[in-house]
Amino acid sequence: MLSVSNIVKSFNYKKILNDITFSLSNGDTVALLGKNGVGKSTLLRIIAKINAPDNGDVFFQNKNILKSKSSTRQGIYYCGHAPGLYPSLTAEENLHYFSLFHQCNPSLTLIQTTLKDYELSNAMNKPVKIFSQGMMQRLKLAFIEIINWKLLLIDEPFSGLDISGNDFVQQKISSWQNGERVILFVDHNLDRAVDISSRVLLMDKGKIAIDEKSNANGLFDKITRLMH
Amino acid sequence: MSNLLPDKISKALFIVTAILMSVNLYLIFAVTPMVPEQHWAQKIFYVHVPIAWSGFLSYFIVMLAGIMFLIKKDSKWDRVGLAAAELGTMFVILVLITGPIWATPIWGKPWIWEPRLTTTLILFLIYVGYFMLRKFGGHPERVSRIAAVIGIIAFLDVPLIFYSVKLWTPQFQLHPQVEMNQQPDGILFPFLFSMFTFTLLYFLMIRIRIHILNFKHKLLTEENV
Amino acid sequence: MLSVLIKKELFVELRNKEVVFSMLAFGASVLLIFSFSFNGNPKTMHEIAPGLFWTLVLLSSSLGLHRMFGLEKDFDAFSSLIASPVDRSIIFLSKWISGFIFLSITELLIVVPFFLFLGLSKPMSIFPGLFIVLSGNLGITAVGVLISGLAMRARMSAVLLPVLLFPLLTPLLIACVKSTAGWFNANPLEFYQIWVMIMITYVVIFGLAGFTLFDQITEE
Q: Would you kindly state where each structural domain of chain B is located, as residue ranges?
């Protein structure tokens, strides 16, 4: 479904991503691992077409999304570090507009039940600028529930959440995966990442150093060796 | 010197330009006739016009390089654009200096809002912003694309600036009109010769500048491997 | 999609009132400075009024345009917006149109104090003036959205925006001032139609440039 080929990206003459190539197929839940500053977020943002690579292509459903019309990117949903919302609009209004941008039109009941599920019913009509970090994180995750996607790019889904929130999100991630979708997420907690994912990609020195199934033998040792 | 002239074309261009430029200077100072009312001041015209032409040619190359960079995404074109922007700005500064040198004795004051001079000044100011962006804007890779867009719209603005300033100041149509075929041969030939020589000089300079920028890019990239 | 995007722009502004309010407050203080600095006789004021008006508009619009993209940047909503499958040229159009609306509203609110404070007499007919001002606004916002969009992705955007914008706008500014003066002096249209033509050319050229080039500057 997603195929990334020969991605190169430099910052200040330093090649952060140097020839990144991999492809993901339906049903993959992929943990993207690597040290700080290795370019995980940048890679997600390149696939989401927020950052431009110096070189390379990204194919989504066999179309080169970096060189074709914006409609070929329909089905990709990016959930980044930053809130990515309009601070003065309420949770519901943000949801309304961003679903329209993604060409879906959710019913009010869907919005209401989802926000309730994410413990945000009281905050539904409040501007998101007054949200706490945890609330903001839950709201960002609620978007994933409402917007139709086939490929989810999510940067640190667990940041800013307490322990109960952690379990909640773990359970949500597995419920999002219906066998037809691809989830690519970045996480710093190795145990948890390997636990949730079906496959692991580890980036090191600008390349994909490990690309294996999460239940592969000796995977954990390999990962820890490269991460230290 | 040989480091700056990496290939045969540059070496040949250097030798030809050096010879032609010496001849050019000799022609300007010793051969061309004195224009009665302007005396020595008129001589600057053999330098001023070719420099202005080179400057605008250079800004045109910035636009072309910008378009190529946006299409090809190859940083080579970014360096061509940067080299052309630097040289263009240098030539434009010389135009803004030589213009008033000529104008002071002839018009009686150094600056008049005359279309050609004004267009040059406005372009220069746009390029001040361009270089501020290059210098302070952030990562060179991020800035390069923004710079390409500015190079394109700056040149798109040229005809509009020229035309509107021309209409704005109809009283200042004092700039010598370039109707060269009415000029005597004694002026026309050295003028065209100077145009040609300065164009060669420009191409030599931009070759050297691109070569230096490529070299710098290579060094900085290797340093970071 | 264009209408959804414009609705979003207007809705955010309705909630915040940040763009119009900052342009208005800034415009009012510039107007105050004008009133004290150019305390001339009515004839002089009448002569320089078109220039003052467009200077005022230009200064406030650079502030408003900067704020328009600042709002997108605060919570990085812009990344979410461009990551969605929406044509970036359409995003440009929505910003252009909404910027044009905000600027026109600001001018509508500032024009009465402008005439009052500078002691100007009322012009004869409204329509040519309205047309001139609206075309001027279209031109300013076309280049303005493009430049503030690209400045947003760089550091020092608050400085870069006016430094790049004002020289690029000179031909439009000249045309705006000249045609406004023509209208102000109740000249027949033939006297200044060439300037109106230049304004329209400017709007077309830079509207198209923004439409084609905006995609190139949205990505980091």
A: 8-224
Whether A55 and B223 lie within 8 Å, measured CB to CB: no
Q: How far apart are CA A159 and CA A93, in angstroms?
A: 24
**Residue C61, amino acid:** S
Q: Find out whether C210 and C84 touch, Cβ atoms under 8 Å.
A: no
B174-188: average pLDDT: 63
Any domain includes A16: no
B225 has pLDDT over 70: no
Asked if the structure places residue A65 within a domain, the reply is no
Residue B221, min C-alpha distance to chain A (Å): 5
- Least confident interval from B56-60, C28-32, C49-53, C215-219: C215-219
- Do C93 and C211 meet the contact criterion of CB atoms below 8 Å apart? yes
| Strand partners of residue A31 | A185, A200
Helix/strand/coil (H/E/C) assignment for every residue in A6-31: EEEEEECCEEEEEEEEEEECCCCEEE
Range(s) of the domain holding residue A98:
23-51+71-227
A15–B221 CB contact, under 8 Å = yes
Residue B87 C-alpha, separation from nearest chain C C-alpha, in angstroms: 19
Query: Interface pTM (ipTM) of the complex?
Result: 0.91
Contact flag C217-B165 (C-beta cutoff 8 Å): no
Confidence of residue B180 (pLDDT cuts 50, 70, 90): low
CATH number, domain of A190, equals: 3.40.50.300
Q: Where are the domains of chain C?
A: 2-217
Lowest mean pLDDT among A173-177, A206-210, B170-174: B170-174
Q: Which residue of B has its CA nearest to A13?
A: B221
Number of domains in chain A: 1
Strands (E), chain A: 2-11, 14-24, 29-34, 55-60, 63-64, 76-79, 151-155, 182-186, 199-204, 207-213
Residue A13 is assigned to a structural domain of this protein: no
Task: Say if A192 falls within a structural domain.
Answer: yes
> In the β-sheet with A207-213, what is the strand arrangement from edge to edge?
A76-79, A151-155, A182-186, A29-34, A199-204, A207-213
Show residues of chain B in contact with C198, CB under 8 Å: 160, 163-164, 167
Residue A69: list chain C partners with CB under 8 A.
Answer: 87
Closest CA in chain B for residue C148: B146
pTM: 0.91
